[in-house]
Design a protein that fits this description.
single chain, 89 residues, GMP Synthetase, Chain A, domain 3, 3-stranded mixed beta sheet, 20% strand, disordered C terminus, DNA polymerase III subunit gamma and tau
Length: 89
């Protein structure tokens, strides 16, 4: 998978975006034109979207790999590598 290479390209552009992606996100889908990034929670996804990080990722993909993929930021329903579920009852 290209994800480690994508993260490295992002790291060279903007460290904040790299930290956000490397610690809170993973690739959850790709259909040939759209890269779906799953975040561990809505807060991480919202930070990604509101901080200009989507543009940083898109620029890194274009410059490093010569691709113009759409980026879809979602909350990963599987929870990714997030925390254990809260105890019930």
């Amino acid at each position: 998978m290209l994800w480690p290479n994508i993260l490295e390209a992002v790291k060279n552009r903007r460290r904040f975006t790299w930290i956000l992606l490397s610690q809170n996100a993973q690739v959850t889908g790709f259909d040939g034109t759209t890269l779906q990034i799953g975040f561990v929670n809505a807060g991480a996804r919202d930070n990604f979207l509101s901080s200009g990080s989507e543009d940083v990722l898109r620029q890194a993909l274009g410059e490093q790999f010569g691709v113009q993929w759409k980026i879809e930021a979602v909350v990963d329903p599987s929870g990714g590598g997030g925390a254990a579920p809260a105890p019930s009852g």
